[in-house]
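Form 7-S
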Amino acid sequence: MSNSNRQSARHRVLIVDDDLVSREMLRFALEDEFEVEEADSGESALLSVAHIPPQLVLLDIEMPGIGGYETCRRLRESESFPIIFVSSHDTLEERVEAFDCGANDFIVKPFDAEILARKVSLAIDACIERERLAGETQMLQKTAIGFLSNMNDSGVLMEFMRSSISCSDQHQLAKNLLEATIQYGINCHVQIRHPGGVITLTPQGAATPLEESVLEKSKEMGRVFQFRRRMVINYSLVSVIVIDTPEDADTAGRIRDNLCILAETAEAITETISMRKDSAEKAEQLQSASLNATMSIEEVRELYRAQLNQSRELLGKLIDEVEASFIFLALTDRQEKMVTEIMQRNVAPVLKLFEDTVEMEQKFGEIIDSLQSQKQDGAADVWLF
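Output:
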């Protein structure tokens, strides 16, 4: 490794003292291990730090102009690097004042060069380690907050699904969707489009005509569209518009992802509700048709029974009238007997057919039972999906 690379990798130490000899002694003790800069007053020290912050400051107490304590206080307003006072004064009051104004250590003149260099090195290493731990802590806190936020977001989604899966109408679904956006802590308008019309809700209740027109125009802008602080999420049947999108990119991204899941879930439930309503209407039509068919079959059965009875009566009457007409036909006894036998021989099978109606009645019963069973099954199947 070249000497220039070693120089650039070394930590920068700022010595602040109005006494040139003291500055030279401190430089001599540190320049082998550190990049040393000097300032002869508190004012010049503040300017130097504002330009290039060092990793550590060695600070004298008594200086003209801004003294060491005041310089330390001003540095502490914006900087966290170690500050070590180097002074010939070693009273309790001065040490307490040094710590009160934000110093990390106190070294008494005259000092041991090796001990000074060691203290400076340890102070810088400790500061670097604190910054590393602080960064890790901040990252862990951010991760934990994100994890808790995700858990809360999942809880909102689960509650929305639980309360909406059994919804029987789109208006209640729209109310559940709006409530979920409120649980996320954002101001949204929601719209659900279905065969029966359009439902638009806001946290203040039903949307105004202007708000509805905004959503109507926004639904053609793609799946996710953002204009300034407004973000629109569109699906075929569901739209959600965020009125005040957070400026933080991570928060806005999390809200976008959560609302996309909510809107997609609401879309699926909207389709299910429409299917249920369509099935209910078809089932009602089927029940009505089954009832009409059952009544028609019953009427046919009664008509069939009446026709059987009338046919029996007519055949019996026919035989009686033929036999009564024998007296006017001048038939011999043998001829009358022959005609009577012929009629009875042919009428008897017909009458027997009329009497054998069990199979026909059974068929009527099977048809009626089948229609009634279909009517009951249709009513039970309406809410199966």
